[in-house]
Input
Amino acid sequence: MGKQKRAAKQRAQRQAPHVGPPPSSAGEFGDALVAAAYDTARGIPRAAKECAAALVPGLELPGELAEGARLAGQRLISRVCRGGWLPEDIHQATRRRVDEFAGSYVLDTLAAYVAQFAPATVHPGWRDQLDEAGAVRWWSASEPHLAQWAAKHILTPAEALVSVVEAFGLLVTLPELSVVLPPPGTAMPDRPAHHAVDEKKLSRVRALLAKAESSSFPEEAEALSAKAQELMTRHAIDRVLVESETSAPDVPASSRLWLDTPYLDAKSLLVHVVATANRCRAVFDSRWGFVTVVGDENDLDAVALLTTSLLVQATRAMIADPAGRSRAFRQSFLVSYATRIGERLEKAAEATLADSPDADRLLPALASHELKVKAAFTTLFPDVVGKSVTVRDLDGWDAGRSAADRARLRE
Output
């Protein structure tokens, strides 16, 4: 009985929120917020609410508290950005882990962090993702951000602080990632100019995929997707041939694709097979639900376009199947669909390569490109291990394969 009481006391101590002396400066207020954030991340109930009640017992928001929140937020977001997280990654993490108020505060914190750097030291990809995520500096410098943010969302000081603690609770849990783009403030490295994207071909690929997504006929949709893959392969061939004749080295890049639940393992398999068919390599992070793809920048665009379209088509075909009601069926359907689509995309790509009149020059250039992608992938992910995806429903497997088999690879 004594051991049980001691164990219960220890559990209660672990679940108790951090308690310290009342803060009196901006730094101490910030430390109190971060301590509560760690308690929240540990799953301690009411940690955020108790912190807010202790720091703002009334309706006044002390200036030192607002400044402390700003300082703490900048410290946390700096670690996250230097740890490889991009604006889109941060936005996707907030969508999945916190409510809209905490997510809004995270994006404002991100916007304030990037604003301190000279535009020339912020990668264009970073700026594009900031705009897409809505991370813009909208507030005035005449008063603290926290007060303006609380007023914008019609929150009391205590309610605002709860969201701040929850926002910080997310930031302290974000692990280091592979660096896809240099963080803000980093001098831009000289990158060789890649063969320019043929906007006409890219527009045609987008049009084919849009038509595939809107088609109510699976055979037509999958034939259109195969045609899009053929066009992308032809464009890649042209690009590889041009770059093989220049002195500029082919430097692989990387990007991340975020997936929505459910069936993340099966969806990540679809990303993998599309990446493979487009001369890229992919690895899935199951903790957060994204796939990192490594390859030529133009091939990464192709992978994102085709994957997004195929996920739409696969989901529609899965839901339309009258037998597809159970989770096991749908998981098996998507795994089978991805497997078969991978086989057919590879076949389409191989046929396009075989038809090239420049095969003698093309094959060595592609082999060299593959080695560079492999080396870059290994550098980023030296400890990657393979993972199998379980199939528990044979009817789902057969239905998924049939849906993928309806594709006509040649029109």
About this structure: Confidence is low (pLDDT under 50) at residues 12-16, 407-411.
